Amino acid sequence: MGDHDHRPVLVGVDGSTGALAALREAVILAQAFGRPLEAVSVWQPSTSMYDAYYPDPDSSPQAMALRNVQEASTAAFGAKPPDWFSTRAQPGNPGAVFVEASRTASYLVLGSRGRGGLTKALLGSVSVHCASHARCPVLIVGPDVAEPV
Predict the structure, then answer these.
(1) Which member of 50, 77, 108, 121 has the lowest number of beta carbons within 10 Å of its beta carbon?
(2) What angle do CA 74, 119, 126 make, to 5 degrees?
(3) Is the torsion defined by CA of 9, 44, 145, 85 positive or negative?
(4) Domain boundaries, the chain
(5) Mind listing the pLDDT tens digit for each residue in 1-31?
(6) Residue 85's Cα: distance from chain center in Å?
């Protein structure tokens, strides 16, 4: 069976309710197939002149991405995430980052819609792009998927 047995389940997180629904489904998928799970938040460098002159490190795209993965970890596992769970925040175009990451993943799990505004829509058009171009199966989770009771 080889290396394919250990390819991770990837889940895109951006702090939205859709991403949290995707995270819940990704945890179930990873556990069901005995795969590691990696939560990934993609940030795009700011192009605002205001940020260049008056940078606020707490609201930078990078800081927000790091917060998103930390909040995802806490939401899924509380204070003690299991050793099969990891997080990553990286710069780039979300669609391109997830398609590239899908080359070494077993599954890619995304919410159907992400945050808008300054953080850009992480998901939405990104989920459509990934469903068309990813190199692994893609699960797109709507924000209304109920939490388990």
Answers:
(1) 50
(2) 90
(3) positive
(4) 2-141
(5) 445 568 999 999 998 888 999 999 999 999 9
(6) 13
The yes-or-no verdict on residue 119 having pLDDT over 60 is no
pTM of the model: 0.83
Q: Are 108 and 132 in contact (CB under 8 A)?
A: no
Residue with tokens 């179930």: 28
How many percent of the chain have pLDDT more than 70? 77
